[in-house]
Sequence to fold (337 residues):
Amino acid sequence: MNFLPDFSHIYVESQSIDSDIAKQSFKRFPKAKIIEIEDYKKIFNKNGQDFQIQKLSTKLILAKKQPPFIYPATDIIQDSGFSNFYYCTPILNCIYNCEYCFLQGMYSSANIVVFTNTVEVKDAVKKQILERKYPDEPLLLSLSYNTDILALENILPLTKQWIDFANNTDDLFMEIRTKSGLTSSFNKLKPSKKILFAWTLSPNNIIQKYEHKTPLLERRIMSIQKIVDSGWPVRLSFDPILIYPNWKEDYKQMFERIKETISGDKIFDITIGVFRMSDDFYNRIKKTKPDSDLFYNNYDNSNNVKTVTKDQKAMVRDFALSQLDGYCNGDKINFWD
Fold:
C-alpha cells in the first residue's frame, strides 16, 4: 500500500486562510493540496477514521480555536509543586506515535491541528494569570500537553513565539514537554529562567518498541546537555517507567549514561511516573491496538485511571530513587502518585 508523504494536504478553515500561520504553512509545503473547509471538526472528528493508518500519511489542519483557550491541569499530570497549573492547546496531536500516549484515545484522527488565532489564546492566558487562585505564586502553563510543539519547530516555529510571550508576561512560567532533538532553533535565543524544557527519557529498547518516530536516547541526551549548558532550566522526565522482563537493567544503563553526561546540579528537577491512563482512553485504544502488549497487562483501576499496582509503583519509586541517589538534591525529585 502506497501512502502520500506527511502534510501532502492542508485543510484550512475559511476564517484562518489569511492568517500568518496559514501563510507560513503554504510556504513550508508548496506542493501541498490546499483544501478550504468551513469547520475543522467535520474533518477531525468524523466517524470511521483509523488513527494508526492516518499516522502513515498525516495531514495538516489549520483552524481557529474556540473558547475555552486554557484549562486547569488534571490529576494525571504532575504539577511538581506549582499551585496554579494550567495547560493550553495551540496544537492538537503529535508527529510522534508513542503507544502509551493518551492522544490516540482522546482523538479519532491522527491528523495535526494547528490553531491560528494565537493572540486570542495568549490574551486568555494573561486573563487567567490575573485570576489565578494563588496570587503569590506564578502561573505554570504547560504548552505541549496535547502535542510535542518543539518537534514541529522546523515546520512551524511556534515555540520561539511562545517563549517570547512568556519572557514579556509577568507571573508566567512555561513548561515545554518534548522528546525532540531539535535545539538549533535556540542557538541565538537568550536563555530564560521562565521557560522549563521537560525532556522525556527512556531506554532505547523502549524507544524502539513503543516510542515510534522519536529520537533515540543519545540524541535526546545531547540536546539536553546543550540546552542545560547554555543556561536553560531543564526537567528530566522518566515518565512512564515501564515494567517488563529485565526492565531494571535497561533503565540502569540509561540512568548511568545520563549521570555521566548531564550535571545533576544544573537540572531544575526530575519527575518520575508509571503507566497511567483514563479508563475511557485506555478502552478505546485497546480496541484499535490488538497488537500492543501495553494494553494487556493486569492494571489496577484507581479513580477511573488504569495504572500499575501499588507494589509495582513502590518498586519503580525505590529503584529510580536508588539510581538517582547522589545525582541531585532529593527535593528535586517528584514521583506521580
User: Anything to note?
Assistant: The two ends are 44 Å apart (CA to CA). Residues 64-108+116-335 form a domain with the pyruvate-formate lyase- activating enzyme fold (CATH 3.80.30.30). The first strand starts at residue 9 and ends at 13.
